[in-house]
Give the backbone structure.
Amino acid sequence: MRRLSAVPNRSAIPIAVLACALALPFTASAQDAVVEKPAALVADGMPAVPVALADKTRPYMEFRTAAFQGWNAADRSMLITTRFGNTPQVHGVKAPGGARTQMSFEVDRIGAASWAPGRGDVMVVMKDVGGGEFFQLYTLKDGMLTLLTDGKSRNEFGAWSHDGALVGYSSTRRNGADSDLYVMDPRNPKSDRLVAQVKGGGWQIAGFSPDKAKAIVVEYQSITKSNLWLLDFASGKLAPLGDHRKAIAYGGADFAADGTLWVTSDEGSEFLRLGTVDLRSGAFRAVAPEPKWDVDAFDIAPDGSWIAYIVNEAGVARLKLLDVRSGKARTVDGLPAGQMGNIHIAPWGDIGLSVTSAKSAADAFSVDPKTLAVARWTTSETGGLDVTKNVEPELVEVKSFDGTSVSGFLYRPDPAKFPGKRPLIVNIHGGPEGQSQPTFLGRNNYLINELGIAIFFPNVRGSSGYGKSFVSMDNGPWKRENSVKDIGAFLDVLEKDPALDATRFAETGGSYGGYMCYAVAIRYGARLKAANCVVAISNFVTFLENTQSYRRDLRRVEYGDERDAKQRAKLMEISPLTSVAKLNLPLMVVTGGNDPRVPASEADQMVKAVRDKGGMAWHLLGQDEGHGFAKKVNQDYQFWTSLMFWQQSLLK
């Protein structure tokens, strides 16, 4: 699909990995030199960071990642985003292993970038300010950005036309809430025009027909329901495809060169399957052979004869190539086992994508579709550390309170280096439709490799990747706490593990995982030492009232509707703030001052409530950050303060 490779909607930003940190066995004295705190951070109720602590962790702070963004048809180079300064920026790479040449130089990170397909004459990038997620579209040339959108509303790139002449995108500029649809030639910003006015915040142009007369539009309502529409550009009419009364999810959609509409859909299945949709009847026909597991992403070869797609097999990604005529698929075996994404097929056929694993930082790769040979275009620095020594996780499966099977990934330290029972941190993902998968842990490798700390990443009910029934098991206020009980089932098993010290367990989580962090601390506080909760929901009612308007209805589908009296009462009942009297663990709270998803007020009210009852609450606020810290200086300081928090509350 010819689109910018932005953060997927099905998952919150993976800030929980950043949040989980443990302390050095180090105690600062008054005369020790301290790290200068970044100017935009407010460190409330916590000590300064000793320079000695920062120095000892330094190699683990200096890793980089590279995200594949697309191809340049003009010179066959690869476009990536990576960080050499404080934030990820656009770089070009001319050949496998070639130099990363920086092309953008912004204060804030570049969220996504793409050259015009088939032309390579103009690059469009997407960027916000301070993590606020009010994205704008720009062209990038000679290191300078030229604004294409209004500079105020939230604008998200949808797709390029096949010939690279037009871009389709959504924007909330009309009223701040509804994601209307627009088309523009980025070479001429005055060509920008509204093509469809819609209701709701989940609309996007997914792909253009080859003749540019129509577009396929996806209306996202929830992870288990989205609607397909066929947009006619001449009339502006949106015609429904398929039965919109049914709960069917579509993960992606695009046209092949012959006009065939390819999609991923869970119609008739628990999982997203790759197939086609008839433009007259709206009927879906599964084509790819997988009977199980989600197809997470795909791209279509320029001539439409084959398709590259990624299958999520219980959290481990597999790249496959489908021959459209025969329906047979080949598996690419030469890539690291982990996560894959941002897949794009070049006009000459090479497949580009991002790959990360426990033993490899995220890097850009290509695959030859004929031979399946793999080429690594980037090898990101890892602070001089030998990443092949990082441990691979093991899968842990348990039965929860009601017999539901839930699983997660456990990273154990080397028993030869760290004999005896080891402390553990449970790190809960966000979403709630996210999924913990084997990946490069970055700073957290210090915990495992140097401190002998085990880390467990659970996938509670409501996680994606295990079928639409499983992902719906936590929907609404009356089912919400069942996912919290899943953590209790994991604790029952992990506490009996002979290699783990059940007297030294703690937890962390971000976004929805931050809500879980609070809720688990309340329900299972007697079994834990401390909680580090990041950009966390503390009160579902105030969260729904204050989250940005363009996403409010989307979140009501998941959590419940605070405007309904019965649901409001139940939402208040299950909110952590309501039960703050039962939260007796040492608490650390991390907040983004510009967070459009979980407003900073959610943290403020929890910190105040805990302190008012005499509890301990450290609070780290990033005034120039949003839903998770994105700037390296802030990420480093968050890690170090988390180390000190764990040293005091878990390891001391």
